[in-house]
Amino acid sequence: MTYESWKFLGKNGEFRLEQPEKSSFLYFPLVNEAGMMSAITPNLHGEMTSSHNTFLMEPVSVMDLHNSKASRNFWVHIEGAGAWSVSGNSAKQNAELFSNGKENSAVEAGFLWHKVIRENAETGLRAETVNFVPVTEDKIELMKVTLTNTGKSVLRLTPTAAVPIYGRSADDLRDHRHVTSLLHRVFTSDHGIEVQPALSFDERGHRVNKVTYSVFGSGAAGEAPVGFFPETEVFAGEGGALDWPEAVVANLEPSVQAGASLEGYEAIGALRFAPIQLEAGQSASYIVAMLITDDRTRPQQIAERYLSAARFDSLLADNQRYWQEKLDTVSFHSGDTEQDLWMKWVTLQPILRRLYGNSFLPYHDYGRGGRGWRDLWQDCLALMVMEPAEVRHLLLNNYAGVRIDGSNATIIGTKPGEFVADRNNIPRVWMDHGAWPLLTTLLYIHQSGDLELLLQPQTYFRDVFVKRCKDRDLNWTPEQGNKLLTKEGKVYEGSILEHILLQNMTTFFHVGENGNILLEGADWNDGLDLAPNRGESVAFTAFYASNLLELSNLLLALREKKGLASLEVAEEMAVLFDTLTAPVSYDSIADKRALLGRYYDAIVPTVSGVKVKLDLEQAAEDLKRKAEWMIGHLRKNEWIKSQEGYEWFNGYYNDHAERVEGDHPQGVRMTLTGQVFSIMGGVATEEQVGKITAAVDRYLKDERIGYRLNSRFGGIQQDLGRAFGFAFGHKENGAMFSHMTVMYANALYKRGFVKEGFEVLDSIYRLSVDFGKSRMYPGIPEYINEKGRGMYPYLTGSASWLLLTQLTEVFGVKGVYGDLMLEPKLVKPQFDQDGKASVETLFADRMFRIVYSNPEGADFGGYRIKGVTLNGQPAACDLSGNGCLISRSVLEALPKDGVHQLEVLLG
Q1: Which long-range contacts (CB under 8 A, 24 or more apart) does 438-441 make?
Q2: Does the keyword Glycosyltransferase apply (predicted)?
Q3: What span, in angstroms and rounded, lies between the C-alpha atoms of 130 and 150?
Q4: Average pLDDT for the chain
Q5: Are 538 and 732 in contact (CB under 8 A)?
């Protein structure tokens, strides 16, 4: 069987896919800021929810999309032909799925709306079904079904909308599934059905419930349904099913009218509309609204607000305009228009991750909702480009999750500053968590010039766990609150800079017997979770080394730009600046651990609240010494060579303190992670970067699925991590894991290996859009599996990194302490036929269109910036190397409205 790929329609990112039901696991997100989170498939399957405990439709995994019959549906009983589903989700239509010529179908979608088009050749009935979640304050999804007679004969139809109402927590899917249906209280009104369970019946307790789940509907002009089938078993009928319900197949009279109350059964929003007659060429439309509300609704108010074709069309236009304007904050224009449109969908993904977290789509990492600590910081990378207005506030709040011991809360609540230790209060420390906040904060500072953020005070997270969760403070009680207190019982606050220093300096001393930072619960790769005692992450030792060097430079920038001469920190922290107090040998594992132990003892159970001042320049030198020691250690001890002569950095030690990478009886072992941070952080010399790329190409690059996260280790690694229990080529065990692959490209660009970086990014794009294998809509997946299928689309941190890499490295638009640096690293194919490439983006609270002109068609390395104009006039800029720096004051003198043109001549 051959499969057509989706194709873009026009210039705004809309696409169309023919016969979409012939590809499995496809789904599309529909969401709004109010908290309605939906997923929809080509046959209208999926889910609707506002949280883990409030699902309107049944929670589903990707397997349920094809095995479960409980989808949104809209039925038509055709006189003389029988039952027909507008989405193809009927037993008869599913049985005819692979019978060519019976029905034509297609999906069209855009930002953020979804249309299913289906036409039955035998009856001449065509249906267009449009779904979207409007940008209102309501948790609601709207659906409009338009039926058109494309034949020559009159069609007599009886329409019925049918949306199963699950109406409870995902925990009830298996546990107490029937018992919780006994809690259902069902009410019918003129336009639809409401379900308000009497109690919330789950592990949180049996509490009185107010949340209500509703399905309302009308004809195009607001005509109400003529009756209802609110009980699933009555709608399906004895021996029937949701994909062949007796109520539709037998065209039964509605069992219930408006004004009824029922209880104790599984519910369905089945709305029967009056029979109609369609002449040739004639159409009829129906609106269906699906809501989650905090209490019973006012049906008439809902009908006025949503249940007419005119209102539907108006809200759809608002929705399209809202998302288009949001995504227009970044637009790329290169020699590949298709890839530029694909990047629009990548640009959307960080926003989706903010709204969905890692859950509530059929592929989900954390099924219970929320985001983890790492997600918080990585998602901010893209939000600085996409939604910069709130980033400072977000960063400030995020630091409240740091503990005084340098660890942090790992689960983020729904409210700003709300943190918990971990799920089910089980403590776990990921050793990489302290590394990410500085990277994100640095990007913010460079984009904004806001060094003042570093001096802002913030509290520390406090719970029962101390000493990086290795111990418990049994005197602590939840009643004391989740803020660190001083000995006097006052809430302690330290600067944001103090928080960052703690995260990186405590980790410097937290080392294993090979001199690298202990792996603990895991690092970025959560699957490396079985080496908590003696495992070490060489990869993130490199990251922390570069962080300490960045912090040293940041302190000097504070001195230069803000005139600061001293650094104020908690007095207990002074011991961490050992070269200023009591120096220890960095070669001595015991001395490092002992110093860290002394610090831990000083901060448990409270801190004094007293602060000391350190000389800023001396503190910067202390950080630099630590960084240089780490870099030297890694270059000396972790650079390895295979028998074939390839060289690279070892990335890990297992729980037997054994080096993981290199030659092995079962084959060469290598990880991509171990190379990324050594390149990105400057640990690898330029010569070593070249050797690493050759080794990656030899051991990790696979023409079928791209750059693997690791080579085949062979067998389960019980002393390293659960990831190796996964089949090789899947998820964290040897798949093309987009996040690390994009970061590999980013690192290569940073170090000037542009052609190699372009090859990596281009491979991700080619794999993602190869629909015959990837089977996914436009966007970047979390990973590509062994068969080339794109897995976990939409919700992946790799989208933030790809957007950031494309903007700051490829197109070279980045901040330097608030000034604008233009340093393009475009290769020849990325310029259009006129020799131009451009990007539109926000900087300094203004929109700019930055156009690079390459009239000589030079490749990267063959051009430099010759001149820059701003709105047609020569721009004052400092040309240095391959880039130019434009002062923020020049940009802030421009009006905030409109789009300002920066023309950059290359030659």
Answers
A1: 438/500, 438/503, 438/504, 438/547, 438/550, 438/551, 439/377, 439/381, 439/547, 440/377, 440/378, 440/380, 440/381, 440/395, 441/395, 441/496, 441/500
A2: yes
A3: 19
A4: 94
A5: no
CB contact at 8 A, 824 and 361: no
Indicate the pairing of strand 819-822 with strand 813-816: antiparallel
Q: Angle at which helices 538-562 and 673-680 pack, to 10 degrees?
A: 20
Q: Give me the domains of the chain, ranges plus CATH numbers.
A: 7-327 (2.70.98.40), 333-357+638-806 (1.50.10.10), 367-610 (1.50.10.10), 811-906 (2.60.420.10)
Q: Are 445 and 453 in contact (CB under 8 A)?
A: yes
Angle between helices 673-680 and 738-750 (to 10 degrees): 30
Q: How far apart are CA 619 and CA 320, in angstroms?
A: 52
Collapsed DSSP state (helix, strand, coil) of residue 550: helix
Contact 883, 812 (CB under 8 A): yes
Residue 497 has pLDDT above 90, yes or no: yes
Q: pLDDT, tens digit, for every residue of 511-542?
A: 999 999 999 999 999 999 999 999 999 999 99
Instruction: Please give the structure tokens belonging to residue 76.
Output: 């038509």
pLDDT in tens, 307-327: 999 999 999 999 999 999 999
Residue 364 clears pLDDT 80, i.e. is over it: no
In whole angstroms, what is the distance from residue 899 CA to residue 330 CA? 12
Residue 871 has which token pair?
């709105």
| Average pLDDT over every residue of 64-76 | 94
* Four-point Cα dihedral 54, 58, 61, 63, nearest 10: 180
Under a CB-based contact definition with an 8 Å cutoff, are residues 651 and 674 in contact?
A: yes
605: preceding bond cis by omega (within 30 degrees): yes
Query: Is-contact 567 555, C-beta < 8 A?
Result: yes
Instruction: Give 101: exposed, middle or buried? Use CB within 10 Å, 0-12, 13-18, 19+.
Output: exposed
Please, what is the Cα angle at 761 between 756 and 764, to 5 degrees? 130
Continuous H helices in 604-685 = 616-637, 673-680
**Angle at the Cα of 273 from the Cα atoms of 123 and 303, rounded to 5 degrees:** 130
Confidence of residue 640 (pLDDT cuts 50, 70, 90): very high
Using alpha carbons only, give the angle 108, 112, 114 rounded to the nearest 5 degrees.
30
pLDDT of residue 418: 73
**pLDDT above 70 coverage of the chain, percent:** 97
Instruction: For residues 772 and 776, give the distance between their C-alpha atoms in angstroms, rounded to a whole number.
Output: 9
Euclidean distance between the first and the last CA atom of the chain, given in angstroms as a whole number:
50
Residue 888 is encoded by which pair of tokens?
């923020």
The stretch 163-184 carries a mean pLDDT of 91
pTM: 0.96
Q: Which string of DSSP letters, residue by residue, matches 377-424?
A: HHHHHHHHHHSGGGHHHHHHHHGGGB-TTS-B--EE-SSTT-EESSGG
Report angle CA 545, 546, 548 to the nearest 5 degrees. Answer: 65
Give pLDDT, residue 667.
94
DSSP E strands in 41-154: the ranges are 46-51, 54-55, 73-78, 82-85, 103-110, 113-120, 125-132, 139-149
Residue type, position 900, single letter: H
d(CA 25, CA 629): 50
E strands within 133-260?
139-149, 155-165, 185-189, 192-195, 199-202, 205-208, 212-219, 227-228
- C-alpha 295/C-alpha 311 separation (Å) is 24
Nearest to residue 527, comparing CAs of 708, 716, 686? Answer: 716
Instruction: Give the pLDDT band of residue 411 (cuts 50, 70, 90).
Output: confident
893 CB burial (10 A radius; 0-12, 13-18, 19+): exposed
Cβ neighbour number for residue 19 with a 10 Å cutoff: 17
State how beta strands 846-853 and 899-906 pair.
parallel
Tokens coding 270: 């089945």
